[in-house]
Amino acid sequence: MSGVITVGVDGSEHGSAAADWAAAEAVRRGMELRLVHAWAQQPLDLPVTVDTEAQQRWAGNLLRETRARVTGRHPELPVTARLLPSDPVPALVAESAEAGMLVLGSRGHGTLVGYLIGSIALHVLRQAKGPVVLVRSPEQVQEEAGEAGEVLAGVGEEPDGVLGFAFEAAAARGAELRAVRAWSLPPVVDWGPGSMRLADETGGLAALEQKRLADALEPWRARHPQVEVAEQVEMGSAAQVLLSSCGSAALMVVGRHASGPHGLPRIGHVAHAVLHHAPCPVAVVPHP
Q1: For residues 56 and 147, which has the higher predicted lDDT (pLDDT)?
Q2: pTM of the complete model
Q3: Which SUPFAM superfamilies does the entry link to (predicted)?
Q4: In contact, 134 and 281? CB cutoff 8 Å
Q5: Domains in the chain, please, with CATH?
Q6: Strand, helix or coil for residue 81
C-alpha cells in the first residue's frame, strides 16, 4: 500500500468529516495525508458567467483551513494540499490509483431514508483503482475516536483484497477483526457430484462454508498474528448479514468487481446496500 492517504474536500460537513477520519487513520498507520479539491473552469460558451478567480481563491482557502485544522489536532502528521484543475470524478479516480486509499464524504439524509451516496462519490467508487472509504458524518468520526470498535470484513469468493485491507485496519487500531461469510443454498443445477462429495466430507454445507472462511483467513492470520479474529458464518443474503452484524463496527470492509456485464464499471449490490445503510464508515476494495 502507498504511504499516502488522499481525501477529497469540498467545503461540506461530510467532506470535513472525511478529512478528520482520514487524518486519524493516517496517524494510526504512520502515513502521509494529502488533501485535494478538484474543480473545472467554466466553459466559454456557458450563458452564465462564473468568477473563476473567486472560485479558485475559495478552493485555496478551503485547503488551507482544512490543513490548519487537521495539523492542529495532529501536529506530527505530514500533510500536503493540492488544487486539481479538473472535473472531480476523473481527478479523484486518478488520485485513487496513486494513494494507499482515497477517502470521501457522502451525503446523509436522515435515519428513515438511510445513507444516500452523493453522485460524485458514486461515480468515483465505480471507477476507482484502489480502496475508497466513504465517511458519512462528523458523528461517525467522534464515535470511532471514543472507542476502538471492531473492523468488519465481508468475505466473498475473492477475499484477498478485502482481508488485506481489513487486517491492516484492525492492526492499526489494535481492534478485533470480525470476518463474515454469508451463504445460501445453491441452485440444484449448480450442485454437482463433486460439490456434494466435498460437502459430505466437511460435515454439510454450513461446515463447508466455515472451512472456506478459515482457509481464506489462514495466510492473513500468519501475516498479522497480533490481530484477534472472530469468524462468523451465517445463512442469508450477504448485504443483510453484514448490516445485521455491524452494530459495534468502527469500519466495514467490502469488495467490488472491477467491471460488470459488458465490461462496464459497477459497485455491486452488496457494496451498494451497505454504503446506503451501514452506520459506520465503509471501505470498498476492488478485487484484484
Answers
A1: 56
A2: 0.86
A3: Adenine nucleotide alpha hydrolases-like (SSF52402)
A4: yes
A5: 1-146 (3.40.50.620), 147-288 (3.40.50.12370)
A6: strand
